[in-house]
User: Fold this.
Amino acid sequence: MPVINRIADLHGEIAEWRRDIHANPELQYDVHRTAGKVADLLRSFGIDEVVTGLGRTGVVGVIKGRGPGKTIGLRADMDALPITERTGKPYASKASGKMHACGHDGHTSMLLGAAKYLAETRNFDGTAVLIFQPAEEGGAGGRAMVEDGLMERFGIEEVYGMHNIPGLPVGSFGIREGGIMAASDEFGIIIEGVGGHAALPHNTIDPVMIAAQLITALHTIVSRNVDPMRNAVLSVTMVQAGEAFNIIPRTVKLTGTIRTLDEEVRNFMENQLRTVSISLVEAFGAKAEVNYRRGYPVTVNAPDQTAYAAKVAGEVAGSERVDANADATMGGEDFSYMLQARPGAYIFLGNGDSAELHTDTYDFNDEIIPVGVSYWVRLVENASQAG
Assistant:
């Protein structure tokens, strides 16, 4: 695996940054310690510009190359999750109920390693813009940075993101053109019937029974209405009803999520959810209130940038270790907002045989650091040749 020698030398130092960030996790926009550490390290590398407070608590570093060329954005996320860690690692979280359970500590540290190397060597034309983003986990920090003028202020022409993936072999990459991560929407349905004594159901309009019927109907939308060659997921995840065993309640609330990989299917799923819910509930004589909240949009990789990213990954890991038609995932990602603003590509980096993301035993695999850093660096160094 042709990892850059200088980056291999930095491996231990980068891992120490990662473990320090891991031990001190912060949530959403409240990443003041992490952002401060990132900004301090960037300044110590001697880069050309460090900007803080973009998108509330985001950090941006700018490194200029030898001459004119493309301006490329590289993005890492900084925030953790509200999970109590149970890895037992010596660098485990010191913050109760907070944990880096998605590898953002590794993403941030790998981008810091790339910043240090690029600032030392300047072996590229153009400009590298290093984006350290808050609030990926549900806070839409990517959108906040875009709305704060990220792309225009720094003249970003293309933007790239990377995420570790458990189960993919260490040092392997996966990428695909088009939708690679799903739109992530949520819904709530309130069914209002007529409550009463459980021994006299004929005097009620039972919302619990209606909810049972509706849950079954909703779960047929994908299987009987969406083209099997396209992707969609609908899951009812919460049912809230009743206060006593002998009372039929007046209302039931259903909550769930819908995931899709293109806007046409996304629009269809929302419309069908509303139609099925209202029609079925009214058929039983009850009323339905449907609330639908659109979350992160589909993460869409642009064709040219995807091909370029796959080529660079192949140079780092070997072409046989790059799946350029990898399966999409139905998880959501707010890097999607950056890809709506500029063409770019999002790639998966294998974390090996680790616990799954968003679990209390997950840990980022430090073994993959040199591979990830080398990928970031080669994206920048090869850009002028690609242009």
